[in-house]
Design a protein that fits this description.
mainly alpha; Helix Hairpins; 3-stranded antiparallel β-sheet; binds manganese (II) ion
């Protein structure tokens, strides 16, 4: 069964002014669609065709660059669209808020550490907030379309928040100002969805 490009839960212009319409259209309709098609081509006729994307990534031989790059790209963007919302922003609450305080000291310290991970990732990649069994949170960044589900990549654990820092994610609107994009991202984070992922994986 082939993987399908997931549709967005909001319109392409819904995240303005933080994420612009044209970037959303190209990012979803071209980049994510490309990863999806290339993943399907890479797994066609193999055992991977019957597996979930999470299992494919967790069991992946990292020398399989076609599945590493395109399977990572498929999973990462599918998560990314869901952790943003036009009604997002603010701060988390409940168990996730407590876990952030326990792991990082405060929300502001978390925000600073996550922003630093995203800002200092050289070239293309992602910044992540991951949860380990038991609820401990960890921040890391990974290159290209890698993610911590892959064996030995980044901080491990289950990614519950991810930020795409490829130039294709922000260049049309922000040009070289990646820090402004990172700051804008915090205005659209869907903390309700991130909390749900935290509860399901802690
Ligand atoms: Mn991207």
């Amino acid at each position: 069964m082939a993987f399908e490009l997931p549709s967005l839960n909001y319109s392409f212009d819904a995240l303005e002014p933080h994420i612009d319409t044209k970037t959303m259209q190209i990012h979803h309709g071209k980049h994510h669609a490309g990863y999806t098609n290339n993943l399907n081509n890479a797994i066609k006729g193999t055992d991977l065709e019957t597996m979930s994307i999470e299992t494919i990534l967790a069991e992946l031989n990292l020398n399989n660059t076609a599945v590493r790059n395109n399977g990572g790209g498929f999973f990462n963007h599918s998560l990314f669209w869901n952790i943003m919302s036009p009604n997002g922003g603010g701060v988390p609450s409940g168990d996730l808020a407590s876990a952030i305080n326990d792991s990082f000291g405060s929300f502001d310290e978390f925000k600073s550490a996550f922003s630093k991970a995203a800002g200092t990732r050289f070239g293309s990649g992602w910044a992540w907030l991951c949860v380990h069994p038991g609820g401990k949170l960890e921040i890391c960044s990974t290159p290209n379309q890698d993610n911590p589900l892959m064996k030995g990549v980044g901080c491990g654990g289950q990614p519950i928040l991810g930020l795409d820092v490829w130039e294709h994610a922000y260049y049309l609107n922000y040009q070289n100002r990646r820090p402004d994009y990172i700051s804008g991202f915090f205005n659209v984070i869907n903390w309700g969805f991130v909390s749900k992922l935290y509860s399901e994986n802690s």
